[in-house]
Batch of 4 targets.
Target 1
Amino acid sequence: MRKKVVIFSAPSGSGKSTVVNHLMSKYPELELSVSATSRAPRGQEQNGKEYYFLTKEEFEAKIADNAFVEYEEVYDGVYYGTLKSETERIWKAGHIIIFDVDVKGGVNLKKIFGRKALSVFIKAPSIEVLRERLVRRGTDSEESIAKRIAKAEEELAYAPLFDRILVNDDLETCLKEAENLPIF
Ligand code: ADP
Ligand code: 5GP
């Protein structure tokens, strides 16, 4: 069995969740990698579903044990990372791993997995369209949208480091292009 991984990264609001959910419902052999984090659960988040929630001490003990494929201190004092045990679990089930991570994590994972990995950057056709989508999604405050747009401008510079770039303009077309990616 080939141990394959597919990495999706995108500025917030570009349609990454929409594309990943579509592919996961179409191809049951794909399984999303659940990251570990030292932040507290938000709202309805459950341990093992959105994240494996660890204390900072537990997370640092796992770093010392070399238990992570990659990890980052994304915010001050808050760690996020992919556990080796998670990748082994998904491969053992005979599934292909899907990573849904930020652009820096995406570039790191591509470096780590090399030819086993297909890395895909998803982007909206323009910053203006991205802003409209974030407004219409209705999940972020005005301030949070402004932050995401500023970050998106920096994140777009990483696009050429990915194997493929999907421009999410017309959704139907984008989902078809996603289905035709060389995943298998
Ligand atoms: P991300 O996971 O990258 O933050 P989402 O998948 O949540 O992005 O998409 C952001 C918003 O834009 C959602 O409300 C989604 O329904 C909408 N959306 C996604 N793709 C398109 C598209 N091609 N055209 C219009 N709206 C879209
Ligand atoms: P949130 O706290 O909003 O769920 O996520 C914060 C950030 O951490 C997001 O940008 C998300 O992509 C990133 N992140 C989540 N899991 C991982 C991971 O395993 N590795 C890295 N490097 N970043 C991650």
Note: The chain is about 40% helix and 25% strand.
Target 2
Amino acid sequence: MDESSICFIDGFHSKLYYRGYSIEDLAANSTYEEVTYLLFYGRLPKRKELEDFKGWLKENREIPNQVIELIKKIPKDTHPMEVLRTVVSYLGNLDPGRSDLSLDGMYRKSIRLTAKMPTIIAAYHRIRTGREIIDPDPKLDHSANFLYMLHGEKPSELWARAMDVSNILYAEHEMNASAFASVVVASTLADYYSAIVAGIGALRGPLHGGANEEAMKQFLEIGSPDKVDEWFNNAVAQKKRIMGCGHRVYKSYDPRAKIFKEYAKKFADMYGGELKSIYEVADKLEKLVIDNLAAKNIFPNVDYWSGIPYYGMKIPIDLYTPLFALSRVAGWSAHIIEYVTNNRILRPRLYYTGELNKPYIPIDQR
Ligand code: COA
């Protein structure tokens, strides 16, 4: 369990690598499709390999009618992460190769699901807001196509690139809680879909992926830059967690947060108004966190700044964690494939702290 060649985090020096490539290099030069290939196969694709891979993703974007009918039946106030969990499970039911644990079978399913996750999320959002579902556009790349299916309009270059960079930044992060949940399930040789459903369940919580939604709600709750000091002092006095800050592995500034912050600034400068004010709230709060909590190794993490570009792209807050999931499915899949290729059931032990050899007491004598 303790060896992997997928991802390395140097939490003391703000460094993150996917398969040896720095996150800064990938965010500046790569695409989500290429990064997914890299995570799955361990190396950057040649041009023809990338074109084929993109083609497979495009071919798999559509979701069957049965799935659309299922989504229509889900209560409209259901959190989209719960919808994703249900639909991924159902897609497993519909896949005749669901129990195929061969390497080819696992790659096929990983590509199938990576391609379909954005379609599921966009379809649910369109249905719950009473609008027509938009079919995927094969002319658009993965991230741009998601925005198109969500809003019904082709995104600008900035929006498409911001979404793609978000997908690159969220694609993988070593053995975090959701990757662990996926790998534990896969290690029993259960099917791929059960493993991904476990990952989605773990990601939903506010201490993990759910933090990007909570961070944005926190900025909105603060309301304006002049209220940040008072809000922060109250939070510290009440021992409240600042959402989007702190990390089990990073004891320094999360390198992904730095890149998201650059996009947050771009969107704030471009749109001004409310977005600029939210940016200023976040920036001021970040300074207070660093001045006061850095001694406890608490710095902004990936979920702190990601919401501001999303807000600028008019994405509803409850889709922020699903956005994390639709990207992270690549990392979960890479870990499942790597682990199962050399499988041993994951079975941690616990330190027992109870008593032993207690005499059984008949119920009337207790
Ligand atoms: N704000 C304020 N204090 C925080 C904090 C935060 N976001 N995160 C941790 N701390 C404090 C804890 O209160 C604790 O203080 P204490 O020693 O005085 O009791 C100390 O830092 C260690 O916290 P701990 O919960 O043991 O750290 P962890 O490694 O178990 O937790 C997280 C990591 C991510 C769960 C935690 O930092 C957190 O809850 N962050 C907010 C949610 C979040 O952004 N999650 C996304 C992670 S990518």
Note: The mean pLDDT is 97.
Target 3
Amino acid sequence: MSVFSHPEFDNHEQLAFFCDEETGLKAIIAVHNTNLGPALGGCRMWEYASDEEALCDVLRLSKGMTYKSALANLKLGGGKSVIIGDPRKHKTEELLAAMGRFLERTGGQYIAAEDSGTSVPDLQVMNRFTENVAGVTERTGIDGLPCNGDPSPATAYGTFIGLKTAVKHKLGRDDLNGLKVAIQGVGNVGYRLAKHLKYAGAELFVTDIHEESVQLAVTELGATAVPQSEILSLDVDVLAPCALGAVLNDVSIPRIKAKVVAGASNNQLAHPRHDQLLMDHGILYAPDYVVNAGGIIDVYYERVGHEHEKVRAHIETIADTLEEIFKRSDASGRPTGQIADELAEERFMK
Ligand code: NAD
């Protein structure tokens, strides 16, 4: 297994491999860049098919966090950690405690947050052994309601702001009344996004692999249920991917009728070149990691003093960043994904 010559290595500052014989913990912590501050990123638990797969994932995700935090105007670097194992079978309190002790040994260079396969209670176990975790304290959420550390409300609000900004830029509309929006995945973020859109007067079309989630959106928000196979090609104004990655690809893009793609899913582009393909099809793509930064902004404020009005105002700066990206894209004729990466690099590279 190569490390320094790994295709995803990209000058990572630090990589740490941990093994705890007693609990069976095998974990990797990757710190991509700390020029702007300590690296904050999720701790993912996943049953990787191989160590190589785990390494590849942690390197890719860690780099992504550097770019996300830089564009979210946060004094944070990028990092990520992975625990190798099936969270439903291998997650024990002892294993999480061992992870907490390992996090402590990074000396604050990396701060772990919730991710796929880990939850707020899991992070709370780690927190008994280290301060280097985030998203674990009870606080008032951005909606003014009590919140246990779950960043989804903030992510959904940021996605709503991003979607509105993209609609204004592409369709020249300030209000969302009657705007047709297709949401793929009405989970923690997608459902809350749907609520914001509903209050703004949008017409909603939703799909999910969980029938109960779809039914909730239909009964509570008056959304129209759509088969999974049709959501991407629906005749709507906006497509909001809020389920899974790689949905924007060679097959889907030519079928997309929406003029705007703005959603919360990570890694929506199957390949970086797909932002060019979207542009070629006249579709404005709001880069996913700019749009879905509400969660990391929320988690950051937990560390520096959480005031929900401040958090809301910071999340609203997603609009300014997107406008800058769209403006540069229009001026240069280059796709928004490329421009976003460049803008991030301007901010975090010395
Ligand atoms: P979630 O698991 O709560 O919701 C995802 C929903 O998508 C689920 O209801 C699931 O059933 C559905 N889904 C899965 N595959 C599907 C498919 N093929 N077709 C239709 N629906 C499908 O997750 P979430 O927290 O809402 O996150 C959604 C996306 O946003 C993820 O890609 C996540 O990585 C990203 N994201 C989330 C946050 C956050 O704060 N939660 C922050 C940044 C990015």
Note: Residues 325 and 340 are 6 Å apart (CA to CA).
Target 4
Amino acid sequence: MTVGLDIKWALRWIALSAEAMAEHRVELIELDRPIGDSDHGENMDRGFKAVTEKIAEVLPEKPGPALKLAAMTLISKVGGAAGPLYGTAFLRAAAALGDEPEIDAAALVTALQAARDGIVARGKAEPGDKTMVDAWTPAVDAAAAAAGDGDVRKVLDAAAEAAEHGAVATEPMIARKGRASYLGERSAGHRDPGAQSSAYILRAAAEAAK
Ligand code: ADP
Ligand code: MG
């Protein structure tokens, strides 16, 4: 299978991400309560609602420009740590995709890597620091490993599944970055909200390709 991903996929990804943030808004707020300030669900829901409005207004015609628009909107509308982090992720992915109308498996892996690298460049977190990097890093590794036969859906499924496991794996970790790090050892025993929202966003990417 060498069918690529196009603008329809990108728009559907954004729409399904917005749906997921609305659906899981309260859950993400609850995850951010014990180790943060209870605003992650609110931030993400508001941000993706703004992205949806902007997309409907501008009607981008290629995946790269669509993700760039999402990035700019998230950066301007989402306060807190997550806005600039996700914004940088989408911006780097958009730059990797450029103006190509179609994304094959190799380009997809490159874009996912660029997104993860953007988060790391912006937030300086390493794997194991109990952040969204702990969802994105296994996702990127799994995506690269699944890209061999060129099936973009397999790549996205692998990324989503790895991100879900990565989010669960943040539970015992002690936070070393972001607000949760103020709690030190008391941050252990709670799942990182940004890792969980990342898993939802990567699952949305996989669903959008079906
Ligand atoms: P804030 O922490 O400002 O309230 P949010 O609650 O929206 O912002 O987002 C918190 C999430 O941001 C965390 O769960 C974590 O995944 C992510 N995060 C915070 N700091 C960093 C960082 N330096 N690098 C990567 N991710 C981070
Ligand atoms: Mg917060």
Note: The mean pLDDT is 97.
